[in-house]
Amino acid sequence: MESLRSQGKHRKYGAAGLSILMLTSIVLAACSETGSTGKDGVNTPNADPAKSTATYPMNTKETLTSWEGINNNAITFYQNLAETPFGKQLAKETGVEVKYVHPNDQQLKEQFNLMIVSEKLPDVIEYDWTGRSSGSYPGGPEKAISDKVILELNDLIDKYAPNLKKKLQEDKELDKMIKTDSGKYYVFPMIRNPSGLVFRGPIIRKDWLDELQLPLPETIDDWEKTLIAFRDKKGAKAPLSVTYVNGNFEIRDAFIGAYHTSNSFYLDDAGKVKYGPVDPQYKDFLTLFRKWYAEGLFDKDFALTDGKVLDTKMLGGQTGATVSLLSGGMGKWMDAMKTKDPKFNLVGSPYPVLQKGEKPFTGQRDFKYNPGPSKAVSATTKNPELAVRWLDYAYSTKGSLLFNFGVEGESYVMKDGNPVYTDQIVKNEKYSLQQMVAQFTKPNGPYEADERRNWNTYPQQDEAVKIWSNTDAAKHTIPAFLTPTAEESKELGKIINDISNYKEEMFAKFIMGKEPLENYGKYVEQIKKLGIDRAVNIYQNSLDRYNKR
């Protein structure tokens, strides 16, 4: 597969054309804080961190550029990360001024493509480099390195990133996750804490359930009865609604998992890779949602529903159930309604199953390493040492406090040796906790999430995590960081892109009744013609190699 960079040398593409080409994928211390000098594992950085000691703020007049998304809650106050209290404090503590370029999150992939083919790359780029989906780099990190888009980081981490190096030496699981099969490190990772792996699931209006004397739905039949009641007795125009943006149907595997399949690639009970949308039982899910769509139980405008539209539907009583985030969904909506409608109450609901008492086949459960908000260093940077030292600050003791808790004395204070958010953050009368922390911290990005950080402001959120965690997702979820070989990526890029485009087109047609479900067999045949069996084989090979790292 010709690289995006080489394509850019010959011609420029519009966003639509690029979509077709893409693969559907500190040392701080008051004086110093050094990395570990313990034994190294295979392919683990092996330079002596003591020789890499740096102090912050660094004494430099050099600047950096960073291409990364900005949290939607921060946009309430600022248009650029450099203007936020977090951005200003990061510049102060590191001594590095950074110019941030923020892509539109609704056009992330297209704007990334345009940047790559333009060959005008910033110093660091926050993006999914795994090649696992249409929204990641085609061919994965090995291809990005060989395309001279990003740098291999092994030597740079050895020499200039003692804080990250120490974490990799101490955590072999993490070390395994953030490198390629050949042992190349390619990003400064976002590292989730153990309690932060589950944060999305079905959410439902508990006040409506109580008013209608309905139990929390567990089975598909329960859900149908509940949605009918929401439609008929609460006047909900879209009893169940979810966002559908850039081909991402944010129901994820809720409802789909009830049929023991997935909306994408997954692992079966034997640990083998499968592609859910061609499973026979996937047709059962489509049949269900076609029925719900026709009966007005599932949002008639689901294909046009983005985050802002869903906010309006949830807060305006048009929708009583969705699948969304713990803080960015449930917490945000409850904050918005706590004074307008004190009875407004949301709770997490179990992932639906077919038979009562059955454990959900899958659900949302992520891994310690989160590829999307991780940062790579571009191959065109003029000062890779500065970029790496700047990135490494986030993994230091003081840097971690800034990324997780913000500015001491403003957004947090230390009590008994632990950071605690101030009343300005947790008891703000005008803005939600999520809006406040987005100004002072970086909610997602290349750093390690602190176990002491908790953005839950309601007991319903804590309970939701327990409910959503009760699935077999850990058994059936494919690691998000598998790396195909360069040869495999040549095939995978076109296969996944073609399949994803066709699958999303047919998905909407099946549910909306524009394509008869009797044609499901023809749909599966077409996906097979597009090469799904070969794609599954490539993922299986990648998984086998990952397990041997």
UniProtKB/TrEMBL annotation:
Presence of the UniProt keyword Signal in the record: yes
Coiled-coil stretches noted in the UniProt entry, renumbered to this chain: none
PANTHER family (UniProt xref): ARABINOSE-BINDING PROTEIN-RELATED, POLYGALACTURONAN_RHAMNOGALACTURONAN-BINDING PROTEIN YTCQ
Keyword vocabulary terms for this entry: Cell membrane, Lipoprotein, Membrane, Palmitate, Signal
Residues in the signal sequence: 1-29
Transmembrane segments: none
Region listing for Disordered, in residue ranges: 35-55
The protein's name in its UniProt record: ABC transporter substrate-binding protein
Keyword Cytoplasm part of the UniProt annotation: no
Top-rank taxon, per record: Bacteria
Pfam families, sorted: SBP_bac_1
